[in-house]
Design a protein that fits this description.
Order of helices and strands: HHHHHHHHHH
Number of helices: 10
Mean pLDDT: 80
Largest sheet: none
Low-confidence stretches: none
Structural class: mainly alpha
Radius of gyration: 18 Å
């Protein structure tokens, strides 16, 4: 759990620094940094997706994952979770006027940061490495990237970004613990395909940064786990 803990603490510290120290940055600087970060995220996502060895599986994973995510409405659930958290923390606030804007910023910061930090190849591979091998280097590298983004997000979207650390520790810690419990089922092929799909999902986040077209990225996250199910079943059938 060392990797997930370091990642979560980095998110908290950097987002609070952004919220209370860097918050005076003019909007035009925030905008250009956000756009440049969006380009970098798209590159990282596309580059990771290119490692895919089964194109049809990737396409099928995205379609099935999108249908499942849309049916469950993960995006809506995350937004409601953010609103519930904000209401529990600030019960005296009213959702009108200025306070409404504050609530919306909290929810946006929490949801956007949670989605960004918990999808993609580094999350999956890093957590798997922590759980299977006790190797935390990938998550340490991810912490540097997440810390930079948290600084920017904290300055523009407020304290909600810091609370995404809870999602980070639950997501990464859950994958690490689950990986240690199912070591025999995870092959290098499964890890590669899951990482490729996760990278394609993170590319969608980059397009949201660029404001090309708003994509409900949270509803795509089930796609990451389709290769795990498909390749596991395929491997078992070949042994029969």
């Amino acid at each position: 759990m060392l990797g997930p803990i370091v990642n979560a603490l980095t998110v908290v510290v950097c987002s609070l620094l952004g919220c209370f120290i860097v918050r005076g940055v003019p909007p035009r600087f925030e905008e250009i940094v956000k756009k440049s970060m969006g380009l970098a995220v798209v590159y990282i996502g596309v580059k990771g997706a290119m490692e895919n060895q089964r194109v049809l599986l990737l396409i099928m994973s995205m379609v099935i994952g999108a249908l499942v995510g849309e049916f469950v409405n993960i995006d809506g659930l995350m937004n409601r979770l953010g609103q519930w958290t904000e209401n529990r923390l600030f019960p005296k606030k009213r959702t009108s006027g200025r306070n409404r804007e504050s609530a919306e910023r909290f929810v946006k910061g929490f949801a956007s940061a949670s989605i960004l930090f918990c999808t993609g190849s580094m999350t999956i591979v890093g957590s798997l490495q922590s759980g299977l091998q006790g190797a935390h280097e990938t998550l340490f590298a991810k912490s540097i990237l997440d810390g930079t983004i948290s600084l920017i997000f904290g300055a523009s979207m407020g304290v909600g970004v810091a609370f995404s650390a809870v999602t980070v520790i639950v997501c990464e810690g859950g994958i690490a613990l689950a990986a240690s419990a199912i070591k025999g089922l995870l092959t290098q092929e499964i890890i590669t395909e899951m990482s490729a799909v996760g990278s394609l999902v993170i590319a969608a986040i980059g397009f949201n940064f660029l404001e090309v077209k708003e994509i409900r990225v949270a509803n795509l996250t089930p796609a990451i786990f389709v290769p795990l199910v498909w390749l596991t079943i395929d491997g078992l059938l070949q042994k029969v």
